[in-house]
Amino acid sequence: MMKVLAIFGTRPEAIKMAPLVKELGRYPGQISCRVAVTAQHREMLDQVLRLFEIEPEHDLGIMQPGQSLFDITGRALSGLEKVLREEQPDLVLVHGDTTTTFVASLASYYMQIPVGHVEAGLRTGNKFSPFPEELNRRLTGALADLHFAPTARARENLLLEGVRRESIFVTGNTVIDALLGTVSGDYVFTRPELKAIDHRNSRILLVTTHRRENLGEPMRHIYQALREIIESYPDVRIVFPVHKNPAVRSVVDSVLGGLERVHLTEPLDYQPFVNLMQKSYIVLTDSGGMQEEAPSLGKPVLVLRNTTERPEAVDAGTVLLVGTEREAVLRETRRLLDDKDYYRGMAEAVNPYGDGHASRRIAEFILYKYGMTKIPPVGFGG
Ligand code: UD1
Ligand code: UDP
């Protein structure tokens, strides 16, 4: 029996690892999958664990209010040493590009335990954008033994860095597995403020921001643009589930607090959140994962960042890189609200990131690589 340990710590890692943890549970004679969370996030992580009914075997509980990169790195590294010594897994699985991801890979390397990197090979080429995610994923790539690339482009990035071809497998992104299992046409909101919104007669802008490089002035500029939008379009509503980071909250409250038709909420559970995305008109975000989900639902995305590691939907025309300048955010939002043909062009549903079977492919590649099947798996895109 092969022992796999999945390690993650934040909301998006949990959303994208949950379908894989579930999938690995379907090979009871071959794979035993256990879970360790650093809990770099607390409430936002717990929301996802509850939804997908995952009870971690280890919970390091490292989160502190206003934590620094040093806090996360140090606390996660020392906590994981004990977990790895106790578990002695045959393979550690990590996801994406958070500090938990990098530190879990480093800790595994120190113990000479192989690492499988889910969502491998995303790159902007700019080491400070996004910060510190670009370096987290590059360093994780250097430490990993198996690379689960979501797209062919991600595989190319890894090959260009000299990663061995036979250690890379194109799987699609597990976020699409999670999304397709969660969005439903007849979903009814339980939160009164979401239930009360007349989705048919108002256009909803779904907004989220949290990137470290956007804290402070860039966020203020984004929110000022949103304020102007709400003042000039009476049929527009903004729903903005505000990240728990106090540095985000203070600026949001000072620019958007108390405005009519602006709904500032706590972070939403994944299920209402993606069903709200389904009912939204435009998504404005600096999130990584939402750039993958919204195109699949046919929602135009304005990316509030200067770089993206997810160029596939930009090429497909459903995602636009806008940056954080007030003028640019205002101009591009107005254009989508004013020009129906332009809107329709961006609202095409495209699925460059997956087909809902990424977790199965990852499991099949693991079984193949560890000699538990002789059948070579077929990658995403053939
Ligand atoms: C982290 C990741 C980022 C990822 C994001 C997803 C790093 C360095 N950053 O950024 O890559 O895109 O998660 O959301 O790995 N907080 C709470 N409760 C929670 C979560 C956060 O109170 O459940 C507050 C705490 O005050 C915490 C702060 O938010 O100190 C920031 O959390 P942190 O994980 O350091 O950074 P994120 O911006 O969430
Ligand atoms: N999300 C959620 N509730 C919210 C906001 C986002 O469940 O209130 C989900 C969203 O659908 C996506 C993920 O959280 O799957 C994105 O997380 P985040 O933006 O925090 O991180 P990133 O993707 O940028 O790493």
TrEMBL record:
Gene Ontology MF annotations: UDP-N-acetylglucosamine 2-epimerase activity
Enzyme class: isomerase
Matching InterPro entries: UDP_GlcNAc_Epimerase_2_dom, WecB-like
A Pfam family per the record: Epimerase_2
EC number: 5.1.3.14
Domain annotation UDP-N-acetylglucosamine 2-epimerase: ranges: 30-366
UniProt entry keywords in alphabetical sequence: Isomerase
Coiled coil: none
The family this protein is said to belong to: Belongs to the UDP-N-acetylglucosamine 2-epimerase family.
Protein name: UDP-N-acetylglucosamine 2-epimerase (non-hydrolyzing)
Organism: Desulfocucumis palustris
